[in-house]
Input
Amino acid sequence: MKAASKDDWYLEYLLGVFCGLRKGEILGLKFSDFDFEQHTVKIERQLGASPVMEERSGKIASCSVEEKDPKTQNSFRTLRMPSVVEQEVLRRQQVVEAHKSCCLTAMRITDTSVVSQMAEPWFIINEHRFNKIV
Output
């Protein structure tokens, strides 16, 4: 984890390792899902790709990211959040706030922002890197 702590995706690694979250669940997290008083995180959604296929060739014509319900009914859950995860969520929140006005204006940044930087469109292109690591 020491090497991963230098990576931009450190929070995503922590959520996978310490909370057992699936990739889509990590992508679907919003800051509003974290309760810092109770030290918990709610899993209520996931993000997934929705490809549109060309009829004749079967190739992907376009792809969008959609918010969906978690994989199963039991996937809706509230988990305890280890302090290392909590600290990194707070750090990420500060980074997002600092960049809101300049760099991330084109991204979906709201009061209940998507926590994961991997939920942004550039991640779809580079998703293979995350899959290799996780």
In short: Residues 107 and 122 are 10 Å apart (CA to CA). The helical segments are 10-19, 23-28, 83-100, 121-133. The two ends are 12 Å apart (CA to CA).
